[in-house]
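Because discrete structure vocabularies remain unfamiliar, we reproduce here a specimen of the format, pairing a chain with its fold in token form:
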Amino acid sequence: MNAGQRGGFGNETASAQEEDAVSQKGVKAETTLTLSGGTLSIDSVDDALHAVDVTVSGGEMTLATGDDGVHADNTLTISGGNVTVWSGGNADNQPLDADGTIAIPDALRPYMGGKTQLG
């Protein structure tokens, strides 16, 4: 049965372009990533959490990564919660990394084991 070009049974072909590339990041947001509670466990090859702006205000997070634990292209704000990060072993890999500002109140400053770097 050949229903012709409009019916979809003919020789027509369809093509689509995939705009999103495959990412090895654990969680990737295009603009803002906000985590306010719950339990999150990520083991990723690349950044565990990545967005333009990242805000953590609660929850329990355990992040294991071959790159940055949390990477914000602009601002990283941590105002609550418990964040444990195991990050990659070279100078470019940091538990917490922001290309702009990292804001963590003094009372919530993390205990940094191993490498003591913030980017």
Remarks:
- Residues 1-18 have pLDDT under 50 and may be disordered.
- Residues 5 and 13 are 10 Å apart (CA to CA).
